Amino acid sequence: MHLKIFRKESLSNYLGADQYFVKSLSAFDLMTLGIGAVIGTGIFILPGTVAANAAGPGVILSFLFAAIVCALAAMCYAEFSSALPVAGSAYSYGNIIFGEFIGWILGWALVLEYMLAVATVSTGWSAYFNALIASFGIHLPKAISGPFDPAHGTYFNLVAVLIVIIVSLILSRGMQSSKRVNNAMVILKILIILMFIGVGFFFIKPSNYHPFMPYKLSGVLKGATTVFFAFLGFDAVSSSAAEVKNPKKNMPIGILGTLLVAAVLYMGVSAVLVGMVKYTKLDVANPVSYALNLVHQGWLADTLAIGALIGMFTMMITTVFASSRLVYSIGRDGLLPKALSKLNKDKGETPENALVFVTIIIVIMGGFVSLDELTNLVNIGTLLAFTFVSFGIIPLRKRKDIENRGGFQVPLYPVLPIVSGLACLWMISQLSMTTFIGAGIWFVIGIIIYFSYGYHHSTIASDK
């Protein structure tokens, strides 16, 4: 058993299994997927609340520092996806570099990250949508507007369920058509953000930038640990590697380009927001809308509500897409039922069974379960994957059977991969005990599933 759980998959096996995917994604498509996942409602909230509570106008530097730390992990993902252009992201990388059991643990962590993230965002989308239609005098019955909680009169969240089904229907049409929808919505979202920056620029008062770091450098660094999580999501781009044209070139551009655009947008919104309104007044639920109403630009505040809905929608598209490719990959290896790896030839080689599976799980979570106490579990799943991908660069470089000539390589090897891994471990140490307990329960369930099913059905390192 000891040797079996650490057996490693070969890259050639994965490339053979994934060859049926249609390779249609360009670097631009990858960037819109990534930006769709990274830029959500947080861009309209975090700059204000972090400025008020931690960093002051120095929140601009908080986003810069957080982006630099994220860039370390992003470079490691860029090298892996360039060298190993296969579906499954960190799960598949783990199987090739560390062996079957570590790969399963990473895959199980990502299952939690992706599905819980989409379920949480679907409930947020529902709240924004209900508020929007309420402004027109339309109100949904209370019974269908929240998770199963009969004591408070709610039984399921209809809007959260419907929006996830709509996202899945778009993705089920194949990547060729769904990427057009995603690209258009991401461009619209960016235009709305740029509109805020352009309009808000004319209402900046230089005096609002003083003092720039009222809570000193420690406040800026505390702010950076908070906004770090706003950059998470770029890793979902690596799930698409098997469907990318020229992955050695386009995967690094997609991953690193996502992070660069996100950093510029976050810092731009932060700079304008704290210039428009004194940071001490920004500890409100929606600071960007608050600032616009203060300068009598309410029409743009209403537009931002639409931008928030679009932002959450594109995040769900990217993450449901990544979830389906992850579940496909685990099914491909026999660690979950093989039926999940079936590709539908009539819909552009889409892993339809995997898509249906993740949709059902997310609908149950978003429609019926209260997720308030569980959202931090998304962070620990992501950071665990980041840690292994960062440290994994070292054994990756030592593999003689993996060729990455002409592909991206992390500079200053091995220093930057080690620094990246240590930074991720430090971020994990900052999470709450409740998060660790929840993650512990999740991983115990995963280990039971592995040894009761996956261990006996695995096809890793065997002829398929």
Automatic annotation (TrEMBL):
Membrane topology, record value: Multi-pass membrane protein
Key word Transmembrane helix present: yes
Pfam family, one: AA_permease_2
Main localization category: membrane
Keyword Ribosomal protein: no
Localisation per UniProt entry: Membrane
Keywords (A to Z) from UniProt: Membrane, Transmembrane, Transmembrane helix, Transport
Residues annotated as transmembrane: 20-46, 58-78, 90-111, 155-172, 184-204, 224-242, 254-279, 299-322, 354-371, 377-396, 408-428, 434-455
Gene3D superfamilies the record matches: Amino acid/polyamine transporter I (1.20.1740.10)
Signal peptide limits: none
PANTHER family, per database record: CATIONIC AMINO ACID TRANSPORTER 4, INNER MEMBRANE TRANSPORTER YGJI-RELATED
Protein name stated in the entry: Amino acid permease
Origin species: Limosilactobacillus coleohominis
